[in-house]
Amino acid sequence: MSFLSYLIKGISLGSVYSIIALGYTMVYGIAKMLNFAHGDIIMIGGFVIFTITSTLGLNPFLAVLLSILLCTLLGVVIERIAYKPLRNATSLAVLITAIGVSYFLQNIALLIFGADTKSFTSVITVPPLKLVGGNLAISGETLVTIPLCIIIMVALTTFVKKSKTGRGMTAVSEDKEAAILMGVNVNRTITITFAIGSALAAVASALMFSSYPSLSSTSGAMPGIKAFVAAVFGGIGSIPGAMIGGILLGVIEILSRAYISSQLADAIVFFVLILVLLVKPTGILGKKIQEKV
Amino acid sequence: MAMLSVKNLGISFGGLRAVDSFNITIEKGELYGLIGPNGAGKTTCFNLLTGVYKPDTGKILLDGVDITGRNTMEINQAGIARTFQNIRLFKNLSVLDNVKIGLHNSYKYSTAAGILRLPSYFKTEKMMKERAYDILKVFGLEKEAALLSANLPYGKQRKLEIARALATNPKLLLLDEPAAGMNPSETEELMETITLIRKKYDVTILLIEHDMKLVSGICEKIFVLNFGTELANGLPQEVLHNPEVIKAYLGE
Amino acid sequence: MKNTAKKQMSKSTRSNLIMTGAIVLVYIVSQIMIAGGAMSNLMKGLLVPLCYYSILAVSLNLTVGILGELSLGHAGFMCIGAFTSAFFSKATVSVITNAGVRFTLAILIGACAAALFGGLIGTVVLRLQGDYLAIVTLAFGEIIKNVVNALFIGIDSNGIHFSMKDAMALNLSEDGKIIVNGPRGITGTPKDATFTIAALLLILTFVIVTNLVNSRSGRAIMAIRDNRIAAESVGIHITKYKILAFTISAALAGVAGVLYAHNISTLIAAPKNFGYNMSIMILVFVVLGGIGNLKGSVIAAVVLTMLPEYLRFMQDYRMLIYAVILIVMMIFNWNPKCITWRKNHSLQGYFARLTKKTKKEA
Predict the structure, then answer these.
(1) Cβ of B93 under 8 Å from any chain C Cβ?
(2) Which residues from chain C sit within 8 angstroms of residue B149, using beta carbons?
(3) CA distance B243 to chain C (A)
(4) How many helices and strands in chain B, by DSSP H and E?
(5) Residue A117 in contact with residue A215, Cβ under 8 Å?
(6) How far apart are the first and last CA of chain B?
(7) Rounded to whole angstroms, how far apart are CA atoms A219 and A108?
(8) Three-state secondary structure along C340-362?
(9) Is residue A264 in a domain?
């Protein structure tokens, strides 16, 4: 029974990683950059919810809504100020800037909220489910997280396939110049991509901190990196890939934590990354893109 | 023995057969032209010959040695050098250094000798510098030696790329659209330079070009590629008047 | 032609001489100030750190600016150099009584250990594309720190004992001593790092990297940075030179680690000295001084190390300022609008316009 319960926990954590990974994979596919600061937006989202619920004592649902709003705004502002000016820079320069943004967010949070770890109150009021005569307990958070992840995935895939903006996003990710020639507003498309990614990060943060309630200025970095590994694992640039990668990674992490060692679990996640990059760099669902010579 | 002997070379990308049944024989010292409409697969052939892509079918023999399946570095060391359609210079290095890199495998000294500034460093660097200048002089670039290669005008950048390729002391030189973007007088100059380096460096040349004046002006033989496969192959006067060839370029 | 030949050969020599001269000058002035009691304790305590931070910046610039790859785990190599050398020094403090000999060996050991890890990690990591390489080096930096933090090593008459669990598991005999004590690190390393040695090592580092850059191998490394595909096409062995640059960079970071370890009494693999924050700080030195600009790395390292000690504001908001520096420097260097602004307002531009005017008038 414990294996099943770990498995479910892993799928739940993996669902959170999937939602975060979506942000990475979309931005990577469309803006062709690795948004190092994505994980830290999750942290900010968590702090926003925390502040609103704990300090201001407002309705958690409202807090999540406000968090989504603020994170979306933050993502757009970051894109406009830090990334847009560097559209034609080398990838090294963009990466350094992204690291700068990430570091900035971490230290702003550190300054405002201090170094001590905060205890996050779960925003999910769904009671846990007891199955198999009480032997298997599924937390309320898990009951919300997994279906929500599926809904988001379906909604996003539909949006990308059916809506005009969504198709524009696909076009930009395949060939920016051609998309411009076809009348796609690239700037707007990229901004919307960041907005969606950041909104999803806020949702992910509500789910994640509800299940794992310790919150500090560096709480977003590790999940961010793991979600990145998930995105690569599933195939960077692929939306279904983000889901598969996320779930698989979540399961690997929880099972490693349970059966091998808690400390080594993180290292194992990294070795998954290295293995994938060395064996099949395009990931499970990724397409092999030939560098034009 | 031919300098380059290619038999039945081919490659597919996904479902598309980009190059198929590519057969060509180039004798030592020949100047061969490779022409064809856009998208015919000419650069793909270059990429196959230089190990950028591994062919699915066929064999490549360079001066009798089978180099099929080798990687780019090995192929260059075996004796093929190339230039690129979109110029690939080392933008942050000087003109002279770009050529010096071409001399990397001809003039060697250990890393340690370089760091410790042993006598071999000074001796070899001096020889490298002289040889690099010699090559630059052939292309009329010696005055710009200290200039950053990114700051060269376009035409000179193309020449520098050829100079760098030549510095690797190749048996076979592949030029990918060397006259692209050049005006008629620059093209004239390029034709003279190519003729000069043929003589001076005893090098076999295969060049891709769209400029028919250059092709008919200096190429001894022409290979026409269309849809990844051979359309015609032979002497310029035959190939360029071949109705199939004309149709391929101009349509019906 | 002869003049150009002379100028090009001594470009690196000139650079080396200027930097060596500057460091020697600073050294002499410092010694005079110390002798005359004119140097504060604060400043005295900064002398060796200034040297190892400069070494860290120059060595990272080799990877970031010369090879063109972003390594976020540089602190990990510093950590390896620090702990291997400290272990050696402590273990042999009664056996090798000559501090000079012992410290020289410690430096070599630290450098070699870091080089070894640099080579091993490089073989795996350098095949990866830029963004992935950054994250993987970040991961390795953290892993190294975490492993060292969980390491217990003791010595007794039976030899060396290892454990990853705790000190008890070492099963040391009565006469044994614990040298590496897990999270409590290594205490009591002999403070062999003097300003003299540190300054010498800095000069050596600078000369090594400058000479490397201005040599055949350096050109190959920069060619890989500028255009990997073109470098392959002229017969350069990409992996070999990538690993070479990365390993030398790691070795020098190890040397910095040796200086660090022999300048403090307690050596701990804590996040603030060997983790992400340290790797970022060194990156900021490199970025501020100019990616690819070795002299700039030294200057930036010195300025950014000293400033927080004297400016309260800088100390409180230090990391925030680092973040802003990274963002601003990149935008300043790469945004087309900024590039145009710089071109229009450059000193060379003004001078050229001035001479044009005088030419016209003439």
Answers:
(1) yes
(2) none
(3) 37
(4) 10, 10
(5) yes
(6) 40
(7) 13
(8) HHHHHHCHHHHHHHHHHHHHHHC
(9) no
Which residues in chain B touch residue A293, judged by CB atoms under 8 angstroms apart?
43, 47, 52, 84
Tokens of A209: 């901190």
Query: Which domain covers residue A37, as residue numbers?
Result: 3-221
In 3D space, the residue among C5, C234, C233, C66 whose CA is nearest the CA of residue B145 turns out to be C5
Contacts of B164 in chain C (CB under 8 A): 234
B47 part of contact set with chain A, CB < 8 Å: yes
Closest residue in C to B121 (Cα–Cα): C215
HSE toward the beta carbon, residue C296, CA cutoff 13 A: 15
Tens digit of each residue's pLDDT (9 = 90 or more) over B180-195: 988 999 999 999 999 9
Nearest Cα residue to A126 out of A115, A135, A134, A137: A137
CA-derived radius of gyration, chain B = 19
Instruction: Look at residue A270 and tell me if it is in a domain.
Output: no
Q: Is C20 exposed, middle or buried (0-12, 13-18, 19+ CB in 10 A)?
A: middle
Transcribe A20-86 into DSSP letters.
HHHHHHHHHHHH-S--TTHHHHHHHHHHHHHIIIIIS---HHHHHHHHHHHHHHHHHHHIIIIIGGG
Measured between alpha carbons, how far is C300 from C287 in angstroms, rounded to an integer?
9
Q: How would you write the pLDDT of chain A (293 residues) with one tens digit per residue?
A: 688 888 988 999 999 999 999 989 999 888 888 899 999 999 999 999 998 888 777 788 888 999 999 999 999 999 999 999 998 888 899 999 999 999 999 999 999 998 888 888 887 777 777 776 666 777 777 888 888 999 999 999 899 888 888 888 888 888 888 888 888 888 899 999 999 999 999 999 999 998 888 899 989 998 998 999 999 899 888 888 999 999 999 999 999 888 887 777 888 888 888 888 888 888 888 766 666 67
- Counting every residue written for chain A, the total comes to 293
**Chain A residues in contact with chain B using a Cβ-Cβ cutoff of 8 Å:** 290, 293
- Contact of B129 with chain C, judged by CB distance below 8 Å, is answered with yes
Give the N- to C-terminal CA distance of chain C in Å, as an integer: 31
Nearest to C153 by CA among C144, C162, C165, C145: C162
The pTM (predicted TM-score) of the whole model is 0.91
- Tell whether A135 is covered by a domain: yes
Residue with tokens 């290095």: B93
3-state secondary structure of B148: strand
How far, in Å, CA of C163 to CA of C146, rounded? 14
8-state DSSP, B120: H
Cβ pair C216:B77 closer than 8 A: no
CA distance to partner chain B, nearest, from residue C213 (Å): 9
CA distances for B35 relative to B74, B169, B210, C332, angstroms: 27, 25, 7, 45
Partners of residue C237 in chain B, C-beta under 8 Å: 73
User: What is the total count of domains within chain A?
Assistant: 1
- Interface with C, mutate which of B52, B73, B80, B103 (most C CBs under 10 A): B73
Name chain A's partners: 3 or more CB pairs within 8 A.
B, C
Tell me whether residues A293 and B13 touch, CB distance under 8 A.
no
Q: CA-to-CA distance for B78 and A5, rounded, in angstroms?
A: 60
What gap in Å lies between CA C242 and CA C224, rounded to an integer? 8
